[in-house]
Request: fold
Amino acid sequence: MAADRLSAGLLHDWANIGVLTVIFALSLVALAAGEDSQLHSVVIAVTVAYLISDALWILLQPDMVKTPKSVIAHHIVTVVVIVDTLEFASHRVNASRALLVEVNTVLLTLRRLLGRPWWCELGFFSTWVLIRLVWFPILGVSLLASTFQVNLKEILPPTVAAVMVQVKEPPVRAYASTAFAAVVLLQFYWTVALGRGFCKKPGRKEEKGHSEKGPQPEPPAGVRLPLLAATCGVCIAISLLRFLGVSSEMKMEL
Reply:
């Protein structure tokens, strides 16, 4: 019966799929509601709560993910980018714009769990290119232009300038725009790594190690840590919603 127990890693994967699907859906609805919608504040509150609670979960049970340090570091950088939107309400729409990427993260996890079905592969690679390699650079350049007060219409061809995002005043804080620029560069690094993964063949050393040690067993799923992370996330989300001044008027937008 021990082999049938849900592993901590699998529980974490499905929890992430659920939460990130909600974040993507909220971002999409918020963008449809307009740049000044209070739904953008909801997106920010839910996302920050997720990032902090997930980092806490991984910190307490690091062996449930392959690269705990890099995941936690990514969460920290994302929070740094979002801090600017906590300060300036006019910038909160930028969080929803960036968080559209979570649909790709969901597909990334699903393709691994489901054995890479064709529909998942199609969705994953198409959103990877459209969001990570096209949309993210557009948004990143627009945020940097806001920070350094650069008029993109004066330096870019008209066809390119037309697709840039109009970021509202005041200028985006330098720490936020440069941190997001680093995230954009990371997308291209991951793309290269993804391409190498298709071409790489398992070496003798890897095959030998696999035959000698076999697959490492994953830790079983518990209840305390997920509940602790969920409770932490709910408390953070509620606190942020109050801090951001989300009122009952938001119901009118729905």
